[in-house]
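[scheduler] slot 2 assigned
[scheduler] job type: sequence-to-structure, two independent chains
[scheduler] chain ordering preserved from manifest
[runner] begin chain α
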Amino acid sequence: MQTIRIHTNFTGTQKHVEEYDLDDLLSEQKRQRLRLLWTDPQAFNPAHTIELATVAAVESLARISDVLKAKGEDPEETAHFLIRVMFTLFAEDVGLLPEATFGRLLGAAKKHPEDFPEMCRELFGAMKVGRTTMQGRIPYINGGVFEATHAPALDLKAINLLHDASKRNWSQIDPTIFGTLFELVIDPGKRWQLGAHYTPLADILDVVEPVVFRPLREEWETVRSEIQPLLHDIEKNRAASGDLFTQQAATETLTGEVVGRLSAFQQRLAGVTVMDPAMGSGNFLYVTLRLLLDLELEVRETVRAVTLDLLPAPQVSPAQLLGMEVNPYAHEIAGMVLHIGYLQWMREHGEKREVSPVLRSLPGLTHCDAVMDGEEARPWPAAEFITGNPPFLGYSPMREQLGGGYVDRLRRAYAGKVPGQSDFVCYFFEQARENVEQGRTRRVGLIATNSISMGENARVLERITQTGSIFAAWPDRAWIQSGAAVRTAIVMFDGGEEQDRALLHHEGDERDPKRRVTVRTEVNTLHADLRSGPDLRSATALRSNAGRSFIGVIPGSKHFLLTKQDAQNIRNLPNPDGRDNSAVIRPFKVGKDVNGHDAERFIIDFSGLSAEEAAAYDQPMSIVRTLVKPQKDKMNRDINRRNWWRFNEERPGMRQAIKALSRFIVTSIVSEHRFFVFLGADVVPGNKLAVIASESYLDFGILNSRPHVLWAERKGSTHGVAGTSPTPPAPASRRSPSQTRTGPGAGHRTGRPAPGSHACPPAEQTGRTWQTPDHDRHLQPAGSVPKHRHRRDHRHSCAGPRP
């Protein structure tokens, strides 16, 4: 033995090889490194080192970008230049370019900075068409990246920054990290997110593996089982003695049949198409590409073992991947991520790739709006599988971020398919559903906030269950979005072909792939609320309850509110016509007040009064005119500007329903526990309270009864940042046989929950939210924080029919 090679194969990482010869054993440092192979194998995990190196490389480009922007360079030209530089550095380090090609260019530019643009144009021009230069042979790269060869003028400071960046090892950058971070560098609108976390690879695999690769691996196992008897006969013939010519002929016939079946399956893999309709910087597609190449490699290695010949050439390529992206920067980066990921995989596996151009065009990656094409819904192309993470954009922020005109066109284009109050992600679900229904797509896996299973949003899931079926779902899990963990759902569906159904959740620290365990619970069916068992969404509201449940008022300005002392003082002030200010100054309650933290606030309430009538209350009107009107004047809704002295939402229906009552029942929308209380008839309830128009102790008792509370929680769901599963997982000691675990420590479980997990959610983590079915659109007024960004976990429940 002359050489020691350590090949890493850690889950979710690029493969890495460390090589030592016998002389290296003379070095104490290298002996200690080799010792870690037995004492600490994780020391060889390249993930941490690659992550740090990638982040550092991106930061280098960020500094150069800042210099160019400070000089007033065009942001788009800067973006294209940085993309060309990044690929040049990568190509240099993987041997596509002669050694130190760009490094020598930068060394010369340090002496004569004025020559930098022309030298870059010459190098980029050579990479555009392929050319032999004084530095050696420059391959034909292009792929659209080097269609333009422009380079900006750089001063010595910027050239030094670029020269320092060129010294890094760009061959080992991780595209799953690089794509996201680089997008933040070159997109001016996202620079504030530069500290954001990229989506962990383990989370992407939880979508891609079951949707795309589970069925492909089942096909592969079928092929292997079919050729197994033939392989046995081949081995038997090779080992047998006798008529060599006859045996060789029989072996060649069997070998040809086996190779034919294997080649057919390799062609099958090369024909797989996968689309991400909101691909961003291409992370989902990159992971899919590597897994396709890995599976194809198994097939190719089987061919080599059968033929005792060379490994067949790979046929899987980035051209099989489809994507849509509205952001031009992200679209361009996605193509680069796929190219780099493909070349890295080829290099890691020793594949010699003598093709020209090095970068092929990727027509499947489209720069477009995925859901709209002018005034119409955009039809999606055929793709066997669809996976992705569409934008997390709630109903209320859509107008602010997408524009009112766009939202109006969107609603019209999808009328009758997607309810008008739905979140933006619902349109992606509907398009994917339509592709499945029309036979253009086989399986889908999409991520949304977990509100996808609530209220109007869930109607798109109902349509999915009507034309196909949901075969697996994560109803509630943590997901990294713009540096924060939000509560999400993963929904996987098809046309009804998949017979297995499963609900999934994590136990342990769900945000850390190393400290969590995946629990899979087999179920018979999955409904639109992403639950099994009875379909509670099919329950109809009781007619006797119609018009009895409401959401409280939305004042529209905090300046309507008064402290207890201020309210008392103003109440005692006289008015010219002798009116009592107490008529318009009333107690005001919100959810926190009901939950035990009563702020004892009051509110100026001119509901139903004209401006002239309100002006009769001198001091209250003076406060509203001075403090509230300037805010109302800036509001988008015309009615709020015109009626500036009144609440944005006065709830006349609620007021009429409780008008004759001496008291009414409320429950806090956000609450740690579900309970109901009485409020006096003079109290004005805020929009964080659900109001039940009843003064009856019977109704009060029914609402607080255990059966009704269980019904409310079963109808509910969770969302927010610190959420837990809507239905807490059963403790390990009493889990059913249909529940299985995967993940670190899954084989070492005892009867107790894992550290950091709970059979029931801890009180400090969980809040529950009451939601009335007819008024849920008022839960999130314009300008409020989107539901998925609430700082606490919430549980929605609907005041529907009682069990």
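[runner] end chain α
[runner] begin chain β
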Amino acid sequence: MKSRESKGGTPRGEIGGITSRLAVFAARYSTLLSILVLAVLVAVGVYIRVLPAIRYGLELDANDPWIAYWEAEYFHQHGLFNFQGLHDVKSFWWPVGRDFTRTDSLGVSWLAAATYSIGAHFGLTLKEWLALFPVFAGAAAIVMLFILVYVVTGSKLAGLVSAAFFALTPGAIARTTVGFVEKTGIAVPVVALAYTFFALALRNKGLRSMIYAALAGITGGLVGYLWGGYHVVTLTFSLAFLIDPIFAKPSRERLKVYAILSLFYIIVAAAYPKIGLKYFIGSLGGALIASLIIYAIEVYIENSPLASRILPDGVTPRFQLWLFIVLITAAFISVYSGLVPVSKRLLAAVGIRNLSPLVESVQEHQPTSIARIFQEYGLALLFTLAGIIVFAARVVRGSIKLYQAVTGSMIYIMALFLVYANKQLAYFTQMASFYVTMAAGLAVADIIAGSVMVSEPKSKRASRAASQYEVRDPLRVLAGIFIILVVGIGGVYYGVQSYKTNEYRAPQILTSGLSPLTLLSSSGQSRIVVPLNKAWLNALDWIKNNTREDALIVSWWDYGYWITVNTGRKTVADGATLNETQIRALARVLTGDEGEANYLLKNVFHAEPNNTYVVFYEIFEGVVDLKNNMTILYPKPEAIQQPQQGIPGAVIHGFADFPKSTQMLKIAYRIPPFTTSVFFTPYSSLYIDSSGQQWVEFPGFVGQPEENVSRVRNTLIYKMAINGIYALPNVAVADSSCQAIINRTQAAVMAVAAARSTAGGYQIQYLFPESQFKSFKPVAVSISCPIVNQVADRYTMLAVVVFIYQWTG
């Protein structure tokens, strides 16, 4: 039985007057309300993203942003169109060098230099201006997502849902936080703009459609200047071309749109040396050309009498659906077989985990758990899954426009694909969040479609207030209200979680990579401490002020950018991980004995004696024993497994380069490269503590067998740590947090703490240098103590220690 309606168009009956009035009010003032809500979302999103700068200062975070700063400084100093000095830069990847025009996306750095006059006007340095770019990108992405979803769906509520999810979810915030100048996050608003132009190209006709197609191609091509993941845009457009005939007969007009888009996309993208025409001929970019050719053939079939004899019914939706499945299967086989060369990262994204030990060693290349995915963007994913069902129903009913069907399909498919890719690699979290938040907005539009009807006034001169609004589907109105409540509650939850995360997110160079620590006071109260320290800053200052300008620094690749950008000294590897052969040689230097290190430094890295330095660091716990006049330091232990009956416990010593040495050993092929555990390898040992409990230790500094212990103690970085601690009183570079403590003792002792299952805590085992180096000498040991506790005349501390050894040849 139909409900009756009042003269004002407000229904009575099941839905109730209040709900109806709210719906009509929201529809009537939707533009104003949308602007207000969007402004609040942008403000809150920006505040959460800029919070680390408010707490800890405006600084670059992590490792990769430092190379973006170096590139921006280059453009600022040498001119925006001077690329000559970027072709063969020997400061990076010595002695081979690096061509930045072919190995990096320079757009972010170029843009920072080009717009720096704005930052300078506000008294910012170039580094500080660049550090703000992720926040700018995050704010722009919030707005662009609203615009994109609104253009595709016509629903402002749907646009606000996408904007809200991107503004507040941890997955979307992580790479758009101040200081973390990571190219993925900065490319997001440009990708959204390209998709907006694409939707407008399909939505419009004639010349306007062609203009939008060209703009979609141009903006899509520019993504490659900003981010190496331009493949995502290529695949999305290719999908659209193949999906189109499922929803409508192929047409010449849309062929023109796709051809113009492809032309401008190829011209703009191929102009960048890193991409080039080769990408569209012999790599993944060929998918775009192949999809366009297939669509052109289908247009020919629809318009050719000869072709109609082969396919009497033309290109039907069923035919196209089967063709789509066949082509996707063929593409997967081509990639899997190596016929189409793609990066190992992309192979892993589709479940082909054929990674090298080096690629496996990168943290963001580790799999992501389902629980983690839901922490990052789970609510938006649930909306997406529900939206796919409703979307499919609308397609079957035919109650959806072509541009909505094509754009919606490509976004839904890419969202699901990137969630799957995110499950394989943590690297895809940001892009998966972006596509899922887009898809969630489309889902909301599909769910509430047709809930409120607007009747425009007959006279164009009449005011908008004369429009009539009436509720057509009360259930959809209730669904809309429910969605607002769910998104509101979920948004608050995500916002609070993101706030708490960023509140304690200090730049890595200020924490040496240490995560926030939860400490207990004597009264049992817990507090979170951000372990700020100057160990790396002081080490970098020492290198800059005490080595020659042409000095070579040998460190694990994680710190290459920090070292070269802040000191101007050459390094042999960095975060680009370009040369696996060179990184393997580096791993063998650090995990070999002194003789092998000498050989590789001389013959592979062409290092100059007395002008080459080995740098690494570790996190130590320490005790200042005033009674015995010595400082005892031991790598911070982590008991990852307690002993059980018949099963030993497991301890890893250290929180920095010692745990990373597991990957060094794999890359160097000293242990099986794809082993899942470093325990029970030649670099671990079995230790029995005073209570009779057995522990497997890594690195195996103490215990049995003696062969393993001797091997560990003579491995370069482990031996350097032992000898370096004993040299600490003579070569310490200590800040105020440690200086007063270290000065109160005359000796420093290296130890390891073997874990115990009893209440005794740790059992200290002292380590003494078995022999002195012949070709290396400690010249500086930078130590900083973020945590110091004093009880009477006894100090305990957490210390970050950076070791700097000179190679004398």
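[runner] end chain β
[qc] chain β: Residues 1-15, 451-467 have pLDDT under 50 and may be disordered.
[scheduler] slot 2 released
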